[in-house]
Every structure is written in C-alpha cells, then in structure tokens.
Amino acid sequence: MATSITQHKRKLRERISLVRGDRSQRQFAQDLGVFQQNVNRYESGTTPHTDFLLTLALRENISLDWLLLGKGRMRRR
C-alpha cells in the first residue's frame, strides 16, 4: 500500500482546514450546522463521523474522493 491509513487521516484533517479557509471554527460549524467542538476535534486529528463528512461534502460542494483520498478536484462539478 503506497499511502498508509495514518497518512490519509493526517491529510484529511488538513483538507478539512483547507475547506474551512479563513472562517473561524465557530463560523464554519454554524455554516455546516454542527458543533464547533467537533470541527476542532476533526482538525486536531479525531476521525470524523460519516454524517459530518457527508454534510461537509454536500454543503460545501466538496468531492469525497478529494476529501478522503486527495484524488481529483476539491470542488464537485
């Protein structure tokens, strides 16, 4: 396996932060309809729940392939 699960998880938290951009964690959480504490945990390395990942992908128009694996474009077409 070229890339380990641990490396993918580390990149996932980086990509979540990239999607958040300049917004505060509080604002980002409000935009997604989730708790700010969850955003903080996920950006700190806790594995996100499926509901969060789906919400993030749908509300921010993010590709799950990009979010989880770093493949393809960030934004869905």
Per CATH, the architecture is: Orthogonal Bundle
What is the total domain count? Answer: 1
- Please count the beta strands (DSSP E, at least 2 residues each): 0
Biggest sheet, in brief?
none
Give the CA-based shape: globular
Briefly note the structural class of the backbone. Answer: mainly alpha
- CATH H-level superfamily title: lambda repressor-like DNA-binding domains
Order of helices and strands: HHHHH
**Helical percentage:** 55-70%
User: What is the oligomeric state here?
Assistant: single chain
Name the beta content range.
Answer: under 5%
Poorly predicted regions: none
Mean pLDDT: 94
Q: If you compute it from the alpha carbons, what radius of gyration comes out, rounded to the nearest whole angstrom?
A: 12 Å
Fill in the CATH topology: 434 Repressor (Amino-terminal Domain)
| Intertermini distance | 29 Å
Figure out the total of helices.
5
CATH class membership: Mainly Alpha
